[in-house]
Amino acid sequence: MLVVDGTNHVLGRLGSQIAKKILNGEEVHLINSENIVITGSPQSIIEKYKQRRRIKHKGRPEKSPNWPRVPNMLVRRIIRGMLPWKSATGREAFKKLKTYTGNPGKFESAKEFQVAKFNGNSRFITLGELCRQLGYQVNETSFISSPSS
Description:
The protein has five helices and five strands. Strands 1-2-4 form a three-stranded parallel β-sheet, covered by helices on one side. A two-stranded antiparallel sheet has the order 3-5. It has helices at residues 11-23, 42-54, 71-80, 88-94, 127-134, and strands spanning 2-5, 28-31, 37-39, 97-99, 124-126. Helix content is 34%, strand content 11%. It is globular. Helix 1 packs across helix 3.
């Protein structure tokens, strides 16, 4: 079991490394998912995810893609896009990923994951701030949540 602290990691780089780990059969627990960084212009990132949430099929809107507002569920959805979702291998691998908003008490000693951390030299937005812009209401109990699956 691998415990990864998402604080100050770039979303795409971290997501691709986690996707490789779970495809190889490892179980990965991602904590502090609201502190993951997305680099780029914050306004364009917010607009891109708002546009994704607006996409609906005309005939059967219930079959539309689901883009959640909660940080840990959004990270799961993004990593799912990096897996071969339409095959049994990808679906089985996806079950090995658990994401958490905040740090539950059982993961006090998170192993340092060898992915390049964000150094803060460019424009960025955290995943927690992006989700707040999409309409996620933060309350005190939401940052320590049960695993998503």
